[in-house]
Amino acid sequence: MERRLSALPPVLIGALIVPAGLLRKLQGVPPTFAEDTERSELLAMGAVMKAERELGFEPRDVSEENRGYDIESSTPGTRKLRFIEVKGRVVGAKTVTITKNEILTALNKPEDFFLVIVVIDSNGPTTPQYVRRPFHREPDFGVTSVNYVLADLLARAEEPR
Questions:
Q1: N or C: which end of the chain has fewer CB within 10 A?
Q2: First vs last Cα of the chain: how many Å apart?
Q3: What is the DSSP letter of 159?
Q4: Where are the extended beta strands (E) located within the chain?
Q5: What is the pLDDT of residues 36-81, one digit of tens each?
Q6: Cα dihedral angle (159, 66, 143, 44), rounded to 10 degrees?
Q7: This prediction's pTM
Q8: Can you tell me whether residue 117 is helix, strand or coil?
Q9: Which of 18, 48, 47, 21 is nearest to 34 (CA)?
Q10: Counted domains in the chain
Q11: Residue 7, in any domain of the structure
Q12: Pairing mode, if any, of strands 58-61 and 129-132?
């Protein structure tokens, strides 16, 4: 029986890979929460980088380094740094999620840390709102993130300076 075994001809199989986000967009399906969040964050980062430059600072994107803030902004001619955590939120959002690492960084550098909130509306990002000393105490040991009421943070916010 082994001598009578023979291989079958190969079966050709092909696949076309289409990103799910592109497919949903082409079908007119609204973006997912993750896609919307990513878009908001990118728009917010751009708005804050622009605002920092207009204020005369030299911002640098460090968001991929998980330092507890997204932008390190330096004062020209000095070694003084501003540590900026950027949160982009769409109009109508009720909360903003802050990680434990971001809260601890803010508490460790209270004079130099800013939580900057950028609301994204149908026209794009609005003016960044800077919150000084946004947090008052560290989260419990087992906490990974905390949701804050967006309106409460915005009530304490200021225009860029």
A1: N
A2: 85
A3: -
A4: 58-61, 71-74, 81-90, 95-99, 113-121, 124-125, 129-132, 145-149
A5: 677 888 999 999 999 999 999 999 999 999 999 999 999 988 889 9
A6: 30
A7: 0.78
A8: strand
A9: 21
A10: 1
A11: no
A12: unpaired
